[in-house]
Amino acid sequence: MNDYGTLAATDTVRIERLLPGPIERLWSYLTESEKRSAWMAAGRMELRPGGKVEHIFRHSELTGGDDPVPEKYRSFDPEVRSSGEVLECDPPRLLSYTWDASSQVRFELTPQGDRVLLVVTHSRLPNRDEMVSVAAGWHSHLDVLRELLEGRTPTHFWSRHMRLEGEYESRIPA
């Protein structure tokens, strides 16, 4: 399985990861604030259609040995917040919600033996620059999640993200 995201449509990035299970464990890392804060963002999440979703990103706290925050993302330091509304929730297999009312994210979980296939689809992205940033962001965050689930200590979020952003610049057509 390729770790890189792909374009599922002209405004949609899709990324797949085969992660350690069981499915309930992975679901908890998507939905519980304390666990989600270790790989992406803290914040409450009401797991029902119409429920509120809050993300409080503190990227510099995700990993150790990190490089300084890149100039491009200085406005994200020390934190940045986003919100949304749950569209679908079918624990522990499906969760989708709006992201700041402008885009949508969908998580699909499918057990595969002792592992779980996680498919993240982020749609309604307004332009190529946003698609590059979102693809690199999901890729970086899912790398951190995989390392945590495998019992490893994640390092260097920002340098990883910037390297991946450069790679997605060449992967996503202009």
TrEMBL record:
Gene3D superfamilies documented for this protein: 3.30.530.20
Residue ranges occupied by any Activator of Hsp90 ATPase homologue 1/2-like C-terminal domain in the UniProt entry: 22-150
SUPFAM superfamilies assigned to the protein according to its UniProt record, in alphabetical order: Bet v1-like
Pfam family, one: AHSA1
Family per record: Belongs to the AHA1 family.
Record's protein name: ATPase
Organism encoding this protein: Lysobacter silvisoli
